[in-house]
Amino acid sequence: MPRWTKEVLIGFVPVLLIFLAFIGVNIIPVLLVVALVGVLTLMKMRGGIAVGASADRKRKKKGPGKLTFDEIGGQDHPKEELMEALTFLIRHEEIQKFGIRPLKGILLTGPPGTGKTLLAKAASQYTDSVFVAASGSEFVEMYVGVGAGRIRDLFHDARNQATKENKKSAVIFIDEIDVIGGKREGGQQREYDQTLNQLLTEMDGIYNSDCPRILLIAATNRKEMLDSALLRPGRFDRHIQVDLPDKKGRKHILEIHAKNKPLAEAVNMDKIAEESFGFSGAQLESVMNEAAIYMMREDKQEIEQRHISMAIDKVMMGEKTDRESTTEEKRRVAIHELGHAIMAEVVRPGSVSQVALSPRGQALGYVRHNPQQEQYLYTKSFLEEQIMIALGGAASEEIYYGGRSTGSSNDFEQALNIVQTMMKSGLTSLGIINIEMVTTEELMRENNVVLEALMSRTRDVLEQHHNVFDQSLEILLGEETLSGDQFRCLFRESSLLPA
Ligand code: ATP
User: Fold this and answer.
1) What does the pLDDT read at residue 400?
2) Positive or negative CA dihedral for 198, 201, 203, 209?
3) Distance CA 111, CA 242 (A)
4) How far apart are the C-alpha atoms of 198 and 149, rounded to whole Å?
């Protein structure tokens, strides 16, 4: 039944009853029938929830399979921290003897696909516990109290399952905890405030002497959104950061996912780890999977280096599409991409690895850059150069077409993000600021000042290199790709020509 029909009925029935009473009709039997229907509906709802919960239970009972910490690549530090925190489940008797309060919750924070769920599963294996998983969004319901009921069920399930399987402990994993654990802003009570309150109550009810013992592990990629009640000591008092893997970590993850695949001996994993800079564990898993698919498509028996390079392109930029663009559109895309490539070559010589016109994912063309060195600190000039590379496409369209196109929206988004990082780090004329204390107008003004200045510098640089456009454009339009070396050759030759 559509929701509005239900709401109209809820509003209409009391009015009808009052009207009937008013004209002297005996409404007591009607009231009894309404009450009966209400009770039956409520029972059905509860039944529905129970059915839902038992379906959940069935799903959760499948368990994690045998996943150990060894099967998680990289993440050495989070693994160590987690193992240390798990001591309380393993050496609980000593912990009780020394009066140490139990660790109730561990919060894993980090970008998507970095292995947070894997860590929770490995934790349950390491501590010989049952594993019960749920996602924050499963607790969001329109009906008041249902989410809270599901939290109760989750803890109840975990205890029951551990008892049934004769285990001494249970690990409950809640992914996307921010969905239910977001900051409470006071004022009106929301349905999920009750869910959060129930979670806090359940956590407060975890004791060292409990059998089975419960450990809650939650994951989020937006820790700053969480309510402080969740983060205080005694609740989630261990916070473990799970970051994107570094080169060594990436190599380890790739090797784990290559184990069950036929890899040619000549494949250089170090190079692949270098090329996949910035990839998460989930993306690396996808790279190995896609590489195997490319191998199969070519009827080969082993995965070669180029299959993996093609897979990296696919994961980074999406599948090649058959979108046919007009000659004029192609020319504009070529000029746009050459703008990025020339800027990149000017500010970071040797950095372009390929310029391509083939449409991939949402992009009509792209410039692939050589892997950067792992870097955790950026100077102002580095960030400005990065913005200039992003603006290179729009700037060259302005030079050659006198205006921009919609093709620059992603570039601008990237540039704006970098400007924001600069503002937060005190690298703009706003000085050292708390971004929340500055008005939107002031931020907009500073954005414009920074971007206009960099746009003008970018245009100047590109105008000085118009020979490179002239030399590379026809080749790029004809061949649809230019390798980094080819492009650098044209770049050097053109730079020798008179301006
Ligand atoms: P989300 O925040 O989106 O829930 P997550 O951090 O929980 O993501 P997982 O679900 O643990 O990520 O990882 C997804 C998949 O990516 C895994 O099934 C695995 O194949 C692969 N993966 C991610 N990280 C690693 C890793 N460190 N080692 C090996 N495989 C990994």
Assistant:
1) 94
2) negative
3) 8
4) 8
SS3 of 465, please?
coil
Residue 333 CB burial class (10 angstroms; 0-12, 13-18, ≥19):
buried
Question: Is ligand 1 within 6 A of the CB of residue 114?
Answer: yes
Of 457, 465, 443, 444, the residue nearest 388 (C-alpha): 457
The confidence score (pLDDT) of residue 412 equals: 96
Residue 349, classed as helix, strand or coil, is coil
Cα(107) to centroid of ligand 1, in Å? 16
The pLDDT value given to residue 47 = 42
Distance 285 CA to ligand 1 centre (A): 8
Q: Report CA(282)–ligand 1 centroid distance (Å).
A: 5
Gap between the Cα atoms of 436 and 438, Å rounded: 6
Q: Please return the burial class of 40, using the count of CB atoms within 10 Å of its CB with bins 0-12, 13-18 and 19+.
A: exposed
Supply the pLDDT for residue 43. Answer: 62
73 close to ligand 1 (CB < 6 Angstrom):
yes
Q: Residues 267, 273, 276, 277: what is their CA dihedral angle, to the nearest 10 degrees?
A: -160
- Amino acid in the structure at residue 28: I
Our mutation pick for probing the ligand 1 site, out of 260, 285, 315, counting the most ligand atoms within 8 A of Cβ, is 285
**Residue written as tokens 């400005």?**
384
- Ligand 1 contact via 285 beta carbon (within 6 Å): yes
Q: Which amino acid is at 215?
A: L
> What one-letter code names the amino acid at 315?
V
Tell which residue, 349, 343, 340, 358, has the closest CA to residue 476. 358
Rounded to 5 degrees, what are φ and ψ at 320? -60, 140
Q: Write down the pTM of the prediction.
A: 0.74
Both structure tokens of 474: 């026809």
One-letter amino acid at 361 equals G
Residue 269 in contact with residue 308, Cβ under 8 Å?
no
Nearest to 197 by CA among 165, 232, 151: 151
> Known catalytic residues?
337
Low-confidence ranges of the chain (pLDDT < 70): 1-8, 41-65, 141-144, 185-192, 208-209, 496-499
> Which burial class, exposed, middle or buried, applies to 96 when counting CB atoms under 10 A from its CB (0-12, 13-18, 19+)?
middle
In short, whether 113's Cβ falls inside 6 Å of ligand 1 is yes
What's the pLDDT score for residue 55? 41
How far apart are alpha carbons 170 and 214 in whole angstroms? 5
Ligand 1 neighbour 116 (Cβ under 6 A): yes
